[in-house]
Structures are given as C-alpha cells and as structure tokens.
Amino acid sequence: MKAKRWLSSFLALAVLVSPLTAHAEPSDQMSPSEHRELKEMTDRSGGTIQVKWDEKLGTPRFISGKLSKPLKGEPFEMALTFLDSIRDLYHVDKAKKSFALKRVDHDELGMQHVRLTHVVNGIPVWGDEIIVHIDKSRVVRSINGQFTANVEQNSERLKKPTLDAQAAIKAALADVKVEHPDAPPQALLHYFAHPEPDQINLVYIVNVYDKNTPADWKVFVDAMTGDILYKYNDIKTKKK
C-alpha cells in the first residue's frame, strides 16, 4: 500500500500542502470524509493550514494551523477529542481504541505536548507515535508524527502469539550469536509493518545487550513462526 495524495485536491480546499515527496497522482484521491475534515480545519484556521503527508504510509506527518476550537478536559482527553474529529485522515474508528498516552510535556510558552502511542488490541505498533500540540487557550496548534493506517484490519489473524517470550529470546540470542548477554534480554510484543505498511506482523522485539561487540541489539522475532524479520544495533543511540 503506497497511498499517494492528489495535490489539486488540497488546492481546491485552500490548503497549503508541502508533500514529503514530489509524486502526486490522481489515481488515489482523498475520500469525501478526508476532504471534509481538512476543510473543517482549514475554515477554523482562517483559510490556510499546512500539511505534510507520509507518501508511503498515506497519513499526515504534520499539520499546523488553528486546528480546533478550545477543548475541555485533561491533555489526554483534549488530544483524543481532536483526533476523533480527524479520524478519517488516520483511518481509525475511535481515537480511544487507537491511542495510548505516553506522556505530556509542558514548555515555557504554556504549550502542552501530548505524546501518544498507536495501539491495536492493546499492543503497540512499532515506530508509530503522534504528538498533539495544544496552546494555553486549549486550542490544537499542530500535530506531527508517524502513523500506520489500517493495522487493525490487516492484523485480524494476529491477535495472540503462538510463541512465548522465552522462545523469542532464545531465537534472538541464536541469531546475533550472543551466549552471555550483559543484561537480561527483554521481549516485548509489537505489531510491525514490514516490508510494506499493509503487511503487518506480530513480533517480539528482543533487546540483547553485549558489551564485547559492543551491541545493543533490537531483534524482531515473528511471534507466530519464530523467524527473524529484522534487526539492528542501537548502540549509537543508547543513553550513557
């Protein structure tokens, strides 16, 4: 699935669009509900918003402007209310089912930055995070992040692993050839879109720390088959 956006659709809505890539084809235009949600935000913002699309995922990477009316509730509640108003842009049913609160950051300007993790069946989607930026008047001023659409539909057969965490750890250790890791390996369930956004896998992401290499391995073990789908050494980004 490589959802692409038709540039003239945005111009018709008086939306200033900055695509992440230069490609725009009329064969994959926005749905009427997506048009409506963009138009509502554009109208609230006085005629112009800025949008950047993730060409591969087909969802917004960034939207800015006066995106909402003043909202009520705690930061997480405000973020969910806003996301429900644009749920068709992210292809979700209800924001409460699709987003879990990671944390809320505050800055010196009175902004609240609500970080949300994408979850399906209570399991996080690897790499997906949305940040909703709310000003001191409780108006959403921007939203950014990565979001993989349609994970719930594309993972219907993958609600429970057939492998347990210990079996995943054993497979990961064998793959990276670490007999004695320097910390107890952890295996956490995630949904993983690989190699394309509509090809969803249920995986254990196993962390293996090895001082000798040195390496901080992240090994993606298929939770249904035990196959190694992906791995990388995260040692360069590990905090000291």
Describe the 3D structure.
Strand 9 and strand 10 form a beta hairpin. This protein has two domains: 7-154, TATA-Binding Protein, CATH 3.30.310; 165-237, Roll (Nuclear Transport Factor 2, Chain: A), CATH 3.10.450. 32% of the residues are buried. The chain contains seven helices and eleven strands. With 240 residues, it is of the alpha+beta class. The strands form two sheets. A seven-stranded mixed sheet has the order 1-2-3-7-6-5-4. The protein has helices spanning 7-12, 32-44, 75-85, 87-90, 95-98, 151-154, 165-176; strands at residues 16-17, 50-53, 60-64, 99-106, 112-120, 123-134, 140-146, 186-193, 200-210, 215-222, 228-233. The two termini are 39 Å apart.
Set down the secondary structure blueprint.
Blueprint: H1 7-12, E1 16-17, H2 32-44, E2 50-53, E3 60-64, H3 75-85, H4 87-90, H5 95-98, E4 99-106, E5 112-120, E6 123-134, E7 140-146, H6 151-154, H7 165-176, E8 186-193, E9 200-210, E10 215-222, E11 228-233
Parallel strand pairs: 1-2
Antiparallel strand pairs: 2-3, 3-7, 4-5, 5-6, 6-7, 8-9, 9-10, 10-11
The average pLDDT value, as a whole number, equals: 88
Secondary structure tally, helices: 7
What sequence of helices (H) and strands (E) makes up the elements? HEHEEHHHEEEEHHEEEE
The CATH architecture of the largest domain is 2-Layer Sandwich
CATH topology of the largest domain: TATA-Binding Protein
Identify the overall geometry.
elongated
